[in-house]
Structures are given as structure tokens and as C-alpha cells.
Specification:
single chain; about 700 residues; mainly beta; 9 domains; 5-stranded parallel β-sheet; about 0% helix
Length: about 700
């Protein structure tokens, strides 16, 4: 006997639990087991992938995804897929999807995904008891209906062979839903798992209560129902409508348009168009205008060059349409007079009430007897005015007679005199008035010298006059106030910065001392300068220097004692205290109240670092030697790691209070007097060099 019962192939979901079968000649099959008499049943094939990756081949491989075959051996109660979508199988890119042969029965094929296969489900030789697929009678985007045996469960699928290699077979690609056929065998599904669109294809399977599943039904094309509408509208005779690329006007008032995908549900709309047209009112307008006038009617301009034509008045008709007006105009001529003349410069010509004095072209408009404009064109020239200019110079206080005028001030003066042309001639006088000078001069001379004035050498102080004549021939008087200049004497006390020099006259002085120098004053007389010259001096300020113990902890502390100085270190800092210094030289620049600069250098030496530990401590609370910690001559060191062990190796302190050290307690309990062992790692921080201290210490109580 052979028993094949309760077999599970795959899992509860496709993702991560099922098996993958690819490129097989027969994905799952059974050989001829005619020597055995039994039935394979309760086989569940769920959540697997059957077929070939589409990237591996461009055509279908041989074989089937699933082939159940038996002769004297019967497959029974096989579930391919499951009761819900998450247990379904995927069958893709196979020559045939599922093949049932030789009396294979009670095979339920539910909730699976078929695509890109040569065929979907094939039943041979009474397989699945010869169950027939359902018939699909109608299919649109709202509902799918058909017939089957009463009570059968109809599963509907979207069949999509897009991008599949040469496949036209109907097969269930996307599950849409299921429905049970009623007592008359009719069924209808109107609630889909996803939206349907026109021209898509759908198929279905039927499963009875055994359960046994049929092949896929032939595909039905989904219809998108058309909607119908009409457009009836009244337009004016010169209007039109553009609908779906077609122009409807008075010559083409009606028709039918198919609007692709224009309905609310995305289907085509059929629009029946029927237009009627109102006539355009017509009239005439005539008038007589003056030449140069114009008429604007309905946006059209009518004038002497365009006297007639048709004008359109928008929406001016009683029916609301445009009104057409035929315009015809007559024009009266206008009179035109031309005057070409010349006048003397300064004269005026009158044209009506308009005075004209400047040369040029002028146009004047007046109303003629017929009511139209009369035009006068004036071309006016000016006769030149002869001009003669004379220049005269007089002395200040004199009078010049010019054409009956007594003139004493400088300037330009004009007078008109008759000329042969009949126009006046212009005489221009340029009168200049030369000044009479009376100047006073103050001067001095040094003792023992003389002063030259007006051709004489003067050696005594006083007031002297000199009568002269200017270049214009007018009198000029020069008065000299002459005084005797005495020698001068001055004193100068000054302080220079070290290295500076003082230039006095032509003498360059670089040494401190007292000097008497003979110079010339501002009057160029002898002047004596008494000079007292000193140089600024400043000693290096006292400094307290702390050495660098290898951690950059050197320091310089200056004592300036209230001296008004400004200071600057090499890093531009201005504090009298420098800390955190490495060993080395540090230049300092001091500036005193005179602005003199002094440079001094301070040396931070390398010091000797001291680190040690005591050999005993007494944590008795008397404030003396109550804590065990390392000792050092620099405060920058810290216990990066501090561990204390008792004689049994138990850790009793682990750096809980790094600033104080160990107080002799463990878990808040005093430890007995004994010898304890320690490991202390000391350093500035964990990134720089550290030192490890090991040893023992005695706790005394």
C-alpha cells in the first residue's frame, strides 16, 4: 500500500514562505503508480511561485508549472491555492499553467495569479469530473454577468498578457472577486477588487461544492458604456462654436461629435449639436464734414481718405447681435493762405491776434464762412541788425559820454542808430574802468641791514610814500610801514623714543643733552634755540614664571605696579597673566604713554613632574589623612582610572569620587584595617600621555 495524505507544499503566503519552481518540464507531477491501489488526497499547494523568470528567456520553456497524472492511482482533494488571496500561488512564464490528467478529481484551483503562460488551466480525460467553465454574457466597467450551474462559485479575473512572449491565452492575472450562481444558474458581480477600464479582458473559473474547478472561460472584452447629450443654442449670424475640432456656424449649424473619454466615468460621450442663428440688423449713415475731420463708428475710422464703408456696432441690435451700418461721408474743402515775408530784428508782425517776432514757419487756423478751418501758413525771416563795437578805458572817478549818457561804471552799453537798410544799427560800448591804487605795505628789516623801497635803501624804521602810475596810466600810491626786527630766542624740552633722532635746521641730534643752536626766524633774522633733549627708558617688568611640567601648564605673571602701559604678547593677547604655556620663549611688546615700544622675552622652563602615593591613610573623620589619593606638584592631573582591590581581589573602589579619592568605604560600609592594592591611571585627559601607578596602601583605623 502507498499512502500520500495531508501534504503541504509551500506556506501561508507567497512572500518568504513558499517554494519557487522555475524552468521545470513538469513543475509537480506523479509517475505511473499502477501497482499501488490508493489515493493521494488532502494535498495543499499554497503560496508558491511556478514558472520561469521572464528575464531568462524570450519564449516559453517546455513543460507545465503543475501536471497531476495518474492511471490506476488517483489524486483527490488537492487544493491549488487557498481560501484567500494571501495563500494563492503565482504561475508565470510556463508553456502550460496547470494540466490535470487521468481521472484527477476534486482539485480546487482558487485565488491564484496566472500570467504570461502558454495556457491557463487544461483538464484532460475527465479530469475534475469534466466540469465546464462558466459563460460570460456581459462585461462593462460596472458589472460582469453570465451563466453557470446553480450553486457554483464563480471567480472572476482580469486577463493581462501585456509584455508577454507570444501569449494570447485567457488566464487569471488579477483577482477581481467572486459570486455564487443562483438557482437558475445566473450570476452577476458588480463590486470589483480594482477598477476596470474599457477594452480590458476578463475571464472566470467555476468551482463546485466537491470542490472541483473548471478551466478559464474565454475572455470577454470590457465595454465602457457611452453617454449621450445634446447642445441646442441660438447665436448671432456672425458667431461660431468650435466643438471637438469642428467649427459650427450659419453654414454648418448641426452635426454629431464623439468626445473620447469625456464622460464622468471616463467613457466616450456622443454629443448632438443643433444651432440656430439670429440675423444681423443693418442701417445707413450719411453726413457732410470739413476736410481734416473724421468719424469713428464701431471702431472704424472714416475720413477724407476713407469716406465710405461698413461699420460693425457690437451688440447694438435689438436682438443683442451686432448691427451693420453703411457709412457715406462728403467733405467741404478748407481755404489756405501762404505769407512769405521778413521784418527787422526786434520788430513784430501780427497774424490776427497772434504776435510773431522770431523767424520760422508758422501755421494759424481760423474758421471760414462755411464753418470749416481756414489755414494761414507764415514763413517769417528777420533782416540782420548791423552791430559795431567800441572799447574804451577810463580811470576810476572819470566820466565817459556815450550817445548822450554820462557813464562812470564799467560794462557793456548799447545804442540804436539808423542804418541804410531801414533797420536800426546797434552800437555796443565796452567800457573798462581802471582802478586808482592806494596800497599800504608792512615790512621789517634785521638789525644792521637795509630795506630797498621806491629806488631808495632805508635803514631806519618809519612810514614812507611812493607815487607810481598803473599799467592803465592811472595814479597809484604805495605806503610802506617799516619796522626794525630784533633777534629772537626760544627754549625746547623734549623726549624721544630709543633709536629716534631730532632734526633742528640742518643739525641731526641723536644723543641726550643740552644744546644751543643758531637759526633764522620767520623774518630771516638770527634766532637762538636752547634745546634740552632726553630719551625714554623702560626696564623689563618683573615676572613670576611657573615651569611647564610636560602638560602645557607653564605660566607668566607680570608685575606692572600701576605703570600706564599697553602690552601685547606674540599671540596678540593683552593680559598680564599667561597660563597654559608650553616650555619656550614668549616675546612681549610694551608701549608707554609717549608711544615708545619695548620688546622683552620671557622664558618658560621645563619643570620636573612629581607623582606619588602615600603608603597609609586613616579614614577616621578627623579631617586629616581621611582619603587615599595620588600626590602631585601640578593641579592639572586627574585620575582617569582609579581602582582599589582588597586582598581577595574584590573591587572596592572604582573612581566614584575622583576629586577626593577613596574614603575607605565599600557600598557605604567602612572597610577593615588591612592592606589594599591599587591601580591608578593619571593624566591630563585620555587623549594625551598618561602614567599608571600600581602598589598597595595600608588602611588604619
Amino acid at each position: 500500500d502507498l499512502k500520500i495524505h495531508d501534504i503541504q507544499i509551500g506556506g501561508s503566503r507567497i512572500a518568504g514562505e513558499g517554494n519557487v519552481f522555475g524552468g521545470l518540464s513538469s513543475g509537480l507531477s506523479s509517475p505511473d503508480l499502477s501497482n499501488f491501489v490508493d489515493t493521494a488526497y488532502d494535498i495543499r499547494i499554497e503560496g508558491n511561485y511556478f514558472g520561469t523568470n521572464p528575464d531568462e528567456t524570450g519564449v516559453f520553456p517546455n513543460g507545465s508549472a503543475l501536471r497531476l497524472y495518474a492511471e490506476n492511482f488517483q489524486f483527490k482533494s488537492v487544493h491549488f491555492g487557498g481560501s484567500s488571496l494571501d495563500k494563492g500561488n503565482v504561475v508565470a512564464y510556463a508553456n502550460t499553467g496547470i494540466v490535470l490528467e487521468q481521472y484527477t478529481t476534486e482539485v480546487a484551483i482558487n485565488h491564484n495569479k496566472f500570467y504570461c503562460n502558454g495556457s491557463g488551466i487544461i483538464l484532460y480525460q475527465a479530469a475534475n469530473a469534466g466540469i465546464l467553465p462558466p459563460a460570460i454574457t456581459t462585461a462593462d466597467i460596472f458589472q460582469i454577468s453570465g451563466t453557470a450551474l446553480p450553486g457554483q462559485t464563480i471567480e472572476l479575473y482580469l486577463s493581462d498578457n501585456t509584455n508577454c512572449p507570444d501569449s494570447e491565452a485567457c488566464q487569471g492575472t488579477t483577482y477581481l472577486g467572486e459570486v455564487i450562481a443562483d438557482a437558475t444558474g445566473n450570476w452577476l458581480l458588480d463590486n470589483f477588487q480594482q477598477q476596470l477600464f474599457g477594452d480590458e479582458q476578463v475571464t472566470a473559473t467555476a468551482t463546485n461544492s466537491i470542490p472541483t474547478t473548471s478551466e478559464f472561460a474565454p475572455c470577454a472584452v470590457v465595454v465602457c458604456p457611452e453617454s449621450f447629450g445634446s447642445l441646442e443654442q441660438t447665436l448671432c449670424a456672425n458667431e461660431s462654436l468650435l466643438i471637438n475640432g469642428t467649427t459650427y456656424d450659419v453654414n454648418h449649424p448641426s452635426g454629431t461629435e464623439v468626445l473620447i473619454d469625456a464622460s464622468a466615468i471616463g467613457c466616450d460621450s456622443i454629443l448632438s449639436v443643433n444651432l440656430s442663428f439670429l440675423p444681423l440688423p443693418q442701417g445707413a449713415y450719411g453726413a457732410t464734414l470739413c476736410e481734416g475731420d473724421s468719424l469713428v463708428l464701431g471702431g472704424s475710422v472714416f475720413n477724407f481718405q476713407n469716406p465710405s464703408g461698413q461699420a460693425t456696432l457690437p451688440a447694438a441690435g435689438a436682438n443683442g447681435c451686432d448691427s451693420l451700418v453703411m457709412v457715406s461721408l462728403d467733405f467741404l474743402p478748407r481755404s489756405m493762405v501762404t505769407i512769405d515775408t521778413a521784418i527787422c530784428t526786434g520788430d513784430t508782425i501780427w497774424i490776427g491776434e497772434n504776435p510773431v517776432m522770431a523767424a520760422g514757419q508758422y501755421t494759424f487756423s481760423y474758421q471760414a464762412a462755411n464753418g470749416c478751418d481756414s489755414i494761414i501758413n507764415l514763413s517769417l525771416g528777420l533782416l540782420p541788425l548791423p552791430t559795431r563795437q567800441i572799447s574804451v578805458s577810463i580811470c576810476s572817478g572819470e566820466v565817459f559820454e556815450f550817445q548822450g549818457q554820462a557813464i562812470t561804471a564799467a560794462g557793456l552799453y548799447e545804442a540804436a542808430v539808423p542804418a541804410p537798410s531801414g533797420c536800426d544799427s546797434l552800437l555796443v560800448l565796452n567800457l573798462e574802468v581802471a582802478p586808482v591804487y592806494a596800497t599800504t605795505l608792512s615790512a621789517g628789516f634785521c638789525e644792521g641791514e637795509s630795506y630797498a623801497f621806491c629806488g631808495n635803501l632805508l635803514d631806519a624804521p618809519g612810514t614812507y610814500l611812493c607815487e607810481l602810475q598803473s599799467i592803465a596810466g592811472c595814479d597809484s600810491t604805495l605806503t610802506l610801514q617799516l619796522q626794525l626786527l630784533s633777534p629772537s630766542e626760544g627754549f625746547l624740552d623734549t623726549v624721544l623714543c630709543p633709536g629716534e633722532q631730532l632734526l633742528v635746521g640742518d643739525t641731526l641730534i641723536a644723543q641726550a643733552g643740552t644744546y644751543q643752536l643758531l637759526l633764522a626766524n620767520i623774518a630771516n633774522c638770527d634766532s637762538t634755540l636752547n634745546l634740552n633733549l632726553a630719551f625714554s627708558h623702560f626696564d623689563a617688568p618683573a615676572a613670576e614664571i611657573e615651569p611647564d611640567l610636560g602638560f602645557g601648564n607653564g605660566a607668566i605673571r607680570l608685575s606692572l605696579d600701576g605703570v600706564p602701559l599697553s602690552l601685547s604678547w606674540e599671540d596678540n593677547s593683552t593680559d598680564s597673566l599667561r597660563t597654559g604655556l608650553d616650555a619656550g620663549a614668549y616675546p612681549l611688546m610694551l608701549t608707554d604713554s609717549l608711544g615708545c615700544e619695548y620688546v622683552f622675552t620671557y622664558e618658560v622652563p621645563e619643570g620636573t613632574l612629581y607623582i606619588d602615593t602615600p603608603n597609609a591613610f586613616t579614614p577616621n573623620g578627623d579631617g586629616d589623612n581621611d582619603y587615599f589619593n595620588f600626590l602631585s606638584n601640578t593641579p592639572v592631573l586627574h585620575a582617569l582610572s582609579f581602582k582599589v582591590f582588597n586582598r581577595w581581589g574584590q573591587l572596592v573602589y572604582n573612581n566614584e569620587t575622583p576629586d577626593l579619592g577613596w574614603d575607605g568605604n565599600f557600598q557605604e560600609k567602612p572597610q577593615p584595617s588591612d592592606t589594599y592594592f591599587f591601580i591608578i591611571e593619571v593624566g591630563v585627559n585620555s587623549l594625551e600621555g598618561t602614567k599608571v601607578l600600581r602598589g598597595d596602601v595600608t588602611l588604619l583605623r
